[in-house]
Structures are given as structure tokens and as C-alpha cells.
Amino acid sequence: MWDKTIEIGLRLRGKDLDRKEITERMIPTPIYQRQQGCSERVYYCKGVLCIHSNPNCARTKIKGHVQVMIEVIQNWLSGKQTLEGKNTKTEAEKQIFTENKQR
């Protein structure tokens, strides 16, 4: 999902794509752990280590990240965050809409 988000971002935003634009909307791991009452070390909360010991918590965290990526992509496609602040569809956006309609 992350790779596809970056691919779409590069097509729509080009060099203006900043990874932080996506990650700053995600809940930082230490804060997420505190919210969940987790006492494990921070590096356990990466979705791959804790998925075995606490699958419900890991699932919730991963769903949150996926939701953020969906919202960011929707904003790009709706023109809310296109290059140079323009609210018009770029050629790349039009191409993605066309490709999705053909599927």
C-alpha cells in the first residue's frame, strides 16, 4: 500500500512529493502505544513484531495508516493538494481516473 501511495504521489505531485506529507498525518508510534496502554519497547510496535503477540492492536495501527494513505490519495485526486496549489486536475490525475474507470 505504501509503495502504491508513493507511486501515485510521484505521478501527481512529481518532485514536490514529500514523504512527510503522508507520515505527519499518522499517529507517532510512542503516542499510539500510550493510547493503547502498551508497555512494550517502541521498536516492537512496527506491525511485524507485535502482530503475533497482539494482533488486534497491530491491526488497528495498520488500519489507521492505510486510512491516512487513502485520505491523502483522495485529496490528491480531488485537487486539494496538487502541484503549486492548483485546484485543477493534472494530466496525470486525468490518466489515473481514466485507468480506474477502465478496470
Count of domain modules:
1
- Give average pLDDT, whole number: 77
- Strand share of the residues? under 5%
Tell me the helix content.
55-70%
- The helix/strand order is HHHHHH
Beta strands, count: 0
Q: How far do the termini sit from each other?
A: 18 Å
Largest sheet, in brief, is: none
Provide the low-confidence segments as ranges: 82-103
What's the gyration radius in Å? 16 Å
Structural class: mainly alpha
How many alpha or pi helices? 6
- Principal-axis shape equals elongated
What's the layout of helices and strands?
Blueprint: H1 2-13, H2 19-23, H3 29-36, H4 50-53, H5 55-78, H6 91-102
Helix pairs in contact: 1-5
Characteristics of this structure?
disordered C terminus; elongated; 103 residues
In short:
This protein is mostly helical. It has helices at residues 2-13, 19-23, 29-36, 50-53, 55-78, 91-102.
Could you characterize what this model shows?
The chain is mostly helical and 103 residues long. It has one domain (2-102). 63% of the residues lie in helices and 0% in strands. The protein is built from six helices and no strands. The protein is elongated.
